Every structure is written in structure tokens, then in C-alpha cells.
């Protein structure tokens, strides 16, 4: 198993714990406070931090990072579909379920989306209820709302629908 390096950064949505290997981003977690970061993280860490900084500044609309999320094949399929939802847009759980192969997958899509280990980069905040309402988010609905409003502010889209 590859060594994992952690670093904590302050962001507009609170403290984030970033975990990388030498070659890929493994996870981003919302956390309450800064903790000790790994000494001498690999260059991958600086790349992730720089792209997140650009995203929060509104100058980066897409991420270009190697990702290595841990999950089942179905979860990874859902995360790939979620990653296709463009900046400044939203999709419903039903939209993702249909794209995954069956409208009956809606609940499974919701569970997979909730297990996304790389929020913001794999933009699970862009997935909303079929009725257009914001639904659960690991970081809290206030963070989900902030991320969507941030993207709308820097997007050329007039609404958030995918």
C-alpha cells in the first residue's frame, strides 16, 4: 500500500484535510480544525492545493488531477458520472441513476454520492433532489449551498440545471 500524506488547509468552506499519495489525490475531508500535517508531502500535494485555491478564487472551472478514490465498482461508476456534471450546473439523483443504467438505482446513487471521498473535485455538491431541493451533503447543507452559489457566480450559466 502506498504511503498517504495529509495536509490541512483553510478554505471558504472551512478546514479541509487533503490526503495524497506520491501520484494521486486519495481524499478530501471537511474537518473542524487544523491538525498536524505530514512532514515533506510529495509534489502532488502542492498541485492539489493550487488547484483548490484557483477553484475558490473562481479562476479554475475544472480540475486536472489524478484521482484514486477507494470504493466499490458501482460507487466509482457513480463518481465518474458525478464528475461529468459541469461547473455551474446541477443534476438530480434520478439523472445520475438513469445514466448509471436504471432509474431504480436512485437510492443507491444517493448512498454512493454520500460516500464520495473526494468532494469538491468529484462535485457531489452538484447533485440535488429531483424537486430541485438541496439534499444531504457530508459537509453540511450550508457548504453545499455555498459551493453551488460560488459556481453560479463564476459560471456563464443562467441556472444550475444540467
Structural key phrases:
162 residues; alpha+beta; Double Stranded RNA Binding Domain; Arc Repressor Mutant, subunit A; three-stranded antiparallel β-sheet; two-stranded parallel sheet; 5 strands; 35% helix; globular
Task: Summarize the structure in words.
The chain has two domains: 5-57, 2-Layer Sandwich (Double Stranded RNA Binding Domain); 73-154, Winged helix-like DNA-binding domain superfamily/Winged helix DNA-binding domain (Arc Repressor Mutant, subunit A, Orthogonal Bundle), CATH 1.10.10.10. It has five helices and five strands, in the order βββααβααβα. It has helices spanning 43-57, 73-83, 93-100, 106-114, 141-154; strands at residues 5-11, 14-20, 25-31, 91-92, 127-128. A three-stranded antiparallel beta sheet has the order 1-2-3, with helices on one face. The chain is globular and about 45 Å long. The model has no long low-confidence stretch (mean pLDDT 92).
Layout: helices, strands, pairs:
Blueprint: E1 5-11, E2 14-20, E3 25-31, H1 43-57, H2 73-83, E4 91-92, H3 93-100, H4 106-114, E5 127-128, H5 141-154
Parallel strand pairs: 4-5
Antiparallel strand pairs: 1-2, 2-3
Helix pairs in contact: 2-3, 3-4
